[in-house]
Specification:
The chain is mainly beta. It has a single domain, classed as Jelly Rolls, CATH 2.60.120.10. The protein contains two helices and 26 strands. Strand 7 and strand 8 form a beta hairpin. Bound molecules: manganese (II) ion (MN). The site of manganese (II) ion has 5 residues, from strand 5 and strand 10.
Length: 291
Amino acid sequence: MSIKHVEMIATPSAPHYVGDGFRVHNFIPSYPRMDMKRMDPFIMLDYNSKFHFPPSERPRGVDVHPHRGFETVTIAYKGRVEHHDSSGGGGVIGEGDVQWMTAASGVLHKEFHESEWSKKGGEFQMVQLWVNLPAKHKMDPPKYQALENSKMTKVPLADGNSWVEVIAGAYQGHQGSASTFSPMHIYNVKMKAGAVADFTLPTNFNTALLVIEGSITINGTEKAQGDQMALFANSGENFSVLADQDAIVLILSGEPLNEPIAAHGPFVMNTREELIAAFTAFNEGKFGYLE
Ligand code: MN
């Protein structure tokens, strides 16, 4: 057994707004030493730490915009969001749900607080993750997966009151429901104080965790508090998480694609020429139509 050590504990940077509905701390790619290559295939992570939105008749959010070349994964912890895209995908996700949108060759979409939730307002907490697509799948047709919490694979931990929810990949042989284009594991670990979870993830997989609730101790030595991210070194395979108090921990681990990245705004391609082609296609209205 070889230990996967913590390389860095990242505290959240100053928040900014995406549209008017998402008050986020960016970890990937702007945090020092967590650029698109370091966490490849995870190329962007915005974290809306717990924030109270007052009631609003007009739902807050982000209006119609395009994406091409990757997937957007929205993980809801508090609050409800509604999504619509030009390929017909859409739905509402709430606490514990995950929305996995494969933009691939291109979609227009919009992301808003769900209208009934917006009228009441409340605590809002979400992660939006961008997962890069391998070059050979960047121009695939768009796809939408709604991963409801009630249908997620949940693997109990030894204490009997804690569990690992498998969003993608597998935990101890238990497969999650998301289909992915490259090997990766994404878990939400929901732990009672005192619970311990053990993980075995390949050395070369880029691995990090985000503490959503509570505080934890990693490998018996490193402390991580709520809203902090821990980046693991690419050595060793095993690490443990002890919940110092009731905790929720998001774990990301993916095999790097190791392909060139040409990214600008909502497009993530492999070459500059492909980026220009994406802008041209968008300007020509080839991403479909969304009101
Ligand atoms: Mn978007």
